[in-house]
Amino acid sequence: MQQLLEEMTLEQKVGQLFLVRPDSLDLSQTQDQINDAKADGVTELTDAMRQTLAEYPVGGVVIFGKNLESPQQITQFLDDLQQASDTPLFTAIDEEGGLVARLANNAAFDLPQYESAAAVGTSGNPEDARAVGTVTLNKTLDDLRSCELVPFAQNVNNAPLIMAAHITVPQVTEDDTPASLSSVMLMDLLRGELGYQGLIVTDSLAMQAITDVYTPGQAAVKALQAGADLLLMPNGLADAYTAVLEAVQDGTIPQQRLDESVQRILQCKYQYGILTQ
User: Cβ atoms within 10 A of the Cβ of 62, count?
Assistant: First the structure.
């Protein structure tokens, strides 16, 4: 991993920090279209998207319902994305059950559907919850494997049982800083008190608690300064990428700090078979 890290350009290192919607690679879309779950989503890789991926060499993509048509389609789409990327990509998905189930809520994928966690909970029977968790997780992973979504999704499927470091707390410090941008949460508590040494993934940087206060660039820089490694879905990839790049170039973010996060990202990819060299 150290040799690969040393061989990467600054631009490639910065790109590894970002986990984005594939729609962000389509520069013809506005950010509102990208964020809109009901808007048309990209379902195949175009030449223009390949050029964007070369310019902004992101670390991975998060698949949403609007990017899914069929197992065959998503397999081809993800294979094309991987082929177009110099460094193998994380491929992630939200598959929590209930409303947040990109695969289960698509008729093309044979997955059990559950109304919601709240509805399951009303039975008062812990066996019902255990069944939901077991069946949904196992069947989801089978479908993810069949679609080649599994390299990262089986480890960071954006569901509560998987992402121990994916913290969603809108206001947690005395100055009301979101957890994803808070060094108190990420460094003092998570890395310090809890001793966590793995990959820290922010919550979506397009959430209103962040976008109401920070620009995409400010949020990305602040998250990295706070101790985050992987920056999830900035509310403007170009702005966020450029801001982090310039912050490293002018010393606002030390090169060593950038390398620490990229090292963790590459190590995680290697550990789970995404990166083989």
Answer: 24
Q: How much is the mean pLDDT over the chain?
A: 82
Instruction: With H, G, I as helix, E, B as strand and everything else as coil, classify residue 256.
Output: helix
44 burial via Cβ count (<10 Å: 0-12, 13-18, 19+) = middle
Mean pLDDT across the stretch 251-256?
A: 97
pLDDT tens, residue by residue, 130-177: 666 665 555 455 544 444 444 333 334 444 433 433 344 545 566 788
CB atoms within 10 A of CB 91: 26
The alpha carbon dihedral of 263, 264, 269, 271 has a sign of positive
Task: Return d(Cα 5, Cα 3) in angstroms, integer.
Answer: 5
Cα–Cα nearest to 253, from 228, 232, 234: 228
pLDDT at 90: 92
Q: Are 119 and 47 in contact (CB under 8 A)?
A: no
What is the DSSP secondary structure assignment for residue 89, as one 8-state letter?
Answer: P
Q: From its phi and psi, is residue 157 left (phi > 0), alpha (psi between -120 and 50) or beta?
A: beta
Amino acid at 147: C
- Tokens representing 40? 């048309």
Q: Is the pLDDT of residue 240 over 90?
A: yes
CA distance readout (Å), 43 to 80, 115, 242: 11, 27, 26
What is the arithmetic mean of pLDDT over 182-193?
A: 93
User: pTM for the full model?
Assistant: 0.80
Long-range Cβ contact pairs of 69-74 (< 8 A, separation 24 or more): 69/43, 69/108, 70/108, 71/108, 71/109, 71/143, 71/146, 71/147, 73/43, 73/44, 74/147, 74/148, 74/149
pLDDT at 235 over 60: yes
The dihedral built from the CA positions of residue 56, 270, 205 and 78, taken in this order, carries a sign that is positive
| 46 CB-near residues (< 8 Å, 6+ apart) | 26
